[in-house]
Specification:
heterodimer, A: alpha/beta, Rossmann fold, eight-stranded mixed β-sheet, four-stranded antiparallel β-sheet, 32% helix, B: alpha/beta, seven-stranded mixed β-sheet, 10 helices, 28% helix, 21% strand
Chain lengths: 352, 336
Amino acid sequence: MSTTYPGPLLSVQDLTIEVAGDDGPVRLVDGVTFEVHQDEVFALVGESGSGKSLTVLAIMDLLPPGVRIASGRILFRGRDLARLPESEMRRLRGKDLAMVFQDPMSALNPLQRVGRQLAEAVRLHASGLNRRQTADKVHSLLAAVGVPDPEGRAASYPHQWSGGMRQRAMIAMAMAHDPGLLIADEPTTALDVTVQAEVMDVLAEARRRAGSAMILITHDLGLVAEAADRVAVMYSGRVVETADVHRLFTSPAHPYTAGLLASILGEGTAGGRAFAIPGAPPAAAERPAGCAFQPRCHLGSGRDECTTARPVLTLLPTPPADADGPAPFAGPAAACHFAGESTLNLLKGQPA
Amino acid sequence: MRTDTPAPPFLDVLTVQDLMVGFPARGPLFSRRTLKAVNGVSLHVAPGETLGLVGESGCGKSTLVRTILGINKPTAGTVAVGGRNLAGLLNGRRRQERARMQMVFQDPSSSLDPRMTVHEIVAEPLRINGQYTAAAVNALLEQVGLTEAMGSRRPSEFSGGQRQRVGIARALALKPELLILDEPVSALDVSVQAQVINLLQDLQAGLGLSYLFIAHDLSVVRQISHRVAVMYMGRIVETGPVADVFTNPQHPYTQALLSAAPVADPSAAATRQRIVLRGDLPDAANLPSGCAFRTRCPIATDACAAVVPHLLPPVPTQADFPVRPAHQSACLLVHA
C-alpha cells in the first residue's frame, strides 16, 4: 500500500504536447487539465487522435521520439514528472506508476518465457529477492489474476497463451509492486466480448487489492459506464468535459459528449436511424479557430463566439442535492460557450 | 429491431448448405488431424435482407466468408448464388456469378491502394469488366456521399469514415445483389460508425441489396440486421429474427455473449447479471465430443458430451416465452 499524499494523487495541469510539423510545431495535446484521486477510476474518453494516449504516455515519460511536452505540469504526489530526470523516472515507472497496454502480444517479448518477463519486472524494483523468492512472487502474481497452473504457465511462451490470458499476465506485471497509479490504455479492445468482461473484472479486483487508482483509456462508453467513477472527454487534443460518471451520462453539458451518447446503439435505435455526429474530427494541424468542435456542432452554427473564441474548461453549476451519487472531487466542467444548452433528449429526437 | 420485412424470398440471393471446410493440422507423432474451421454451416440470405453473423475470433467466420467467395474450397457442402451452385459452373461463368456478391473489408486504409486516386479505385472493377465511364464512377461516389471532386484525391487524404465510403462505392460498382461486409465499422470511431451504418441502410432501401454483415459488436449487428446467426467453433448455434434472438436468447452461448456486452448506463452497471464463461476456446483441431461449447457451458450435463446438437425449432410447449419457429438453437438442454 502506498503512502497517502494529502493532495490529489495525480494532477495534470495545462499539459501541452507538440510535434514538429512543416509549418512549426503542431499541438497534439493542447492545455489538458485533470486530477486523479486516491482509489478512483478515472476514464479518459475520446476518439482516435484526440490525444488521450499521448496524455498518458507523457505521464509515463514514454512519448515517442520527436513528440515532446511543450508546457504544463504533471504532479504525481506533488512531484512534477515532466521535470524529473530520467533516473528518477525509472525509479517510479513500473513501481508507483504502471501501465497496461492495448495489445498484450506486442507488449510481451515473444522469445522469452512469460515467467522470465514477469521476474524481470519483479526484480527491477526488488533486487534483494533471490531466484526462489522471485519465482514465488511471479507465481503468486499470476495466480492473483486468475491464471490457472501458474508454475506451468510461467514456463511457456507468449504465443502459447490466449489473448485474454496474455492480458492477465500484463496486469500481473503491472501490479507487481502495488502501483499507486495504474494506467490502462484500451486494455480490452483487442479481446472478444466474453473475454473482455473477465479481464475487466480481473483488473478491478487487482486494483482494489493494491489500492491503486486507475486511469482507464477507452473509446467504449459501455466500459466507462461500468468501470469509471469520473470521466474526462477529450476532443481534438483538449478536455471538453469532465464530470462524475452518473452526471456525464444523464446530463452531458458539452454538445460533443451529448452527440457521443446519442450515437450509442441499443434496443431503442435498432432497425431505425442511428444518430450520427456529422463530419469527422479535424487533424491537429488543421484545427479551426475558436472551438475545434464547432464545424460539427448543432449548437455552434451561426454563433460568432464559437468561431472566434476558444472555450475554456469552466465549472458547471452543480445540480441541487444529488445525495446518492459519489461525492465529486472536482466539480463538473465543460469547455463550451453554450454548455448545458445541448440536452440528450433534443439530439435523440432529431436523428441526422 | 427492423420491422420492415423484406420482400417474400422467391429465390435466396445466397444459400449455403451443410458447408464443411477443413484444413490439415499436425497431430501428435505423424498423425494427421483435420482442423474443421467450418463444420456443417447452412444459411441463406433473402433479397433485401441483412443477415448478421456474430461470433468471437476463431469461430470460423472468416473461413466461412472466404469459402463463400471461392477463396477456400469446401470439403463438403455447397454455396449457391441466386439458386445456382457455384461448384458446378465453368470458370468464366463462375466468375460472372460471383460478381453478384462483393466484399467490403474491415480496414479501409489497408484495403485501398494508397497510390491510386479514389476515382481510379472505384473505376477498377468497371475497367476490368469493360464498363468504365467517368460518369458511372462519379455516380457511385455520389451514391455513397462523396463528391466528384474528391475522386482526384488519394485515400490518405480522407478520414476513416470517408475511406470506408470509398470501399463501399467500389463494392457497388458492378451492381451486386449481395454485399459481404466484414466488420465494416469496427475500425471507425464511435461518432462516425453511425454515419456508415445509416449509409448502408439507405443503400439497401434504395437498391434492394442483401447484406451478410459480420461483426463482433452486438449493438451494431442489432442495429442493421433483420436476422442473426451466432457461430461457435465452426457451427451456427442459434439463428432467428434479430429481435427474438436479442430479447429471448435460447442457447447458453448466446446468453453469455449478450450478457457480457457492456451497457452504457452507469446506474444499470451495478445490478447487471453477467454469465461468465470458464476457460478458453477449445483447440479447433481437437474439438470436444458432442457439443463443442460444453467445456465452457455453465449448464452442460454428461449428455452434452455424447450427442452433437443440431439447430432445431423451439419446443412448442415453452409457454412463458413463445419462441417463433424461425428462431432455432442447437442445444440439447433447450430441447430437452
